[in-house]
Design brief:
Elements (H helix, E strand, L loop, with lengths): L1 H11 L18 H16 L3 E4 L5 E5 L6 E7 L12 H16 L8 E6 L12 H7 L4 H6 L8 H7 L11 H6 E9 L4 H5 L3 E7 L2 E9 L3 E2 L12 H18 L2 E10 L5 E2 L2 E9 L3 H21 L3 E10 L2 E2 L2 H11 L8 E4 L4 H5 L5 E6 L15 H20 L2
Parallel strand pairs: 3-4, 3-5, 5-15, 6-14
Antiparallel strand pairs: 1-2, 2-4, 6-13, 6-15, 7-11, 7-12, 8-10, 9-11
Helix pairs in contact: 1-3, 3-13, 9-10
Amino acid sequence: MSDTFDELWGALAPVGRQRTTGGYRRFSWTPADTQARAWFAAAAADRGLTVETDRNGNMWAWWGDPGPDAVVTGSHLDSVPDGGAYDGPLGVVSALAAVDELRARGVRPARPLAVTVFVEEEGARFGVACLGSRLLTGAITPERARGLTDADGVTWARAMAEAGLDPERIGADPLALERIGVFVELHIEQGRHLVHRGSALGVASAVWPHGRWRLDFTGQADHAGTTRLADRNDPMLPFAETVLAAREAAEAHDAVATIGKVAVHPNGTNAIPSRVRAWLDARAPDEGTLRAVVDAITATARRAAGRHGVSPASFQESFSPVVHFRDDLRDRVATTVGGPAGPAPVLPTGAGHDAGTLAAAVPTAMLFVRNPSGVSHAPDEYAEPADCHTGVRALADVLADLLAAE
């Protein structure tokens, strides 16, 4: 089993990796994404799995005939800009390796098994996270999805069409959902809770509510050397105050808030900007707290913009409510992968996942693999090979249990 995982991991690892940073750029419908999808199709075919792509671009590899009450596992292959190797791919590689492990054990599934790859989970190119699973479940309208644009103004519809798929067919897919009896996603932990607990594995209890907001500050472009400070309508100033306000609001509410992406126009060294566009990512233990954080940040943005003669605007680009994974399935998974000391640790996460989106429609569970540094969405993201192998065995244990169940 370890050889299988290592071979699969080694074959995928070079795809989309940046020589300068060591991070990954696998954005949806780009050459790197196409190469990663081809790798998955080939690896699945090597295992005799039947590969199909649904109307939304998600990939499915079936062991047995596609049908109702299937046990489904998998994750995603796309990345954030200069992201780490493990976020998403660990779940896909582990799922394929778990299929080999199940066959080595002589498991004969009593129900179908599928390995899936969801498209645009990170939202790095088109701005909405978990887009493939949102489309599948109807959590986003086809019209809005088709109109999403990347930084170059390319729409989702155009990019999807150029990849050979029909964007007019995207949208909720009840028949595909009906085939999923249960979904289990294995993922690297994005934090160090398991390190502190001394455990290689954990099970998710909940996903914090989270969302993304776009913040626009529109001022007046002018000369940096000749325009008096008193005569300026500089949008960079209220933007800067908003960045600090995000940190203060998050600290005050025991939440997290980040402004990690910004576009400045015209972006000249010797020019006062005419517009600053920024994106806020905010997450909290409950929705009331999250709204309070965002309200405090946007209120500061409006006040600061007014003082500097700048026009503010804010737009919610995506929102995911709190997800509580089903207690019975969570406890069953924790017991299955636990050891002599008892069930595996159960912990919440502030990171969004396709499992969180699917949880509104089908029974869903998540397994976490220990991350010694706690770093994620960065090249230093890492899991020890031994822990990865433990994760494959644990996932195989869970799948075997579910495949045998009525």
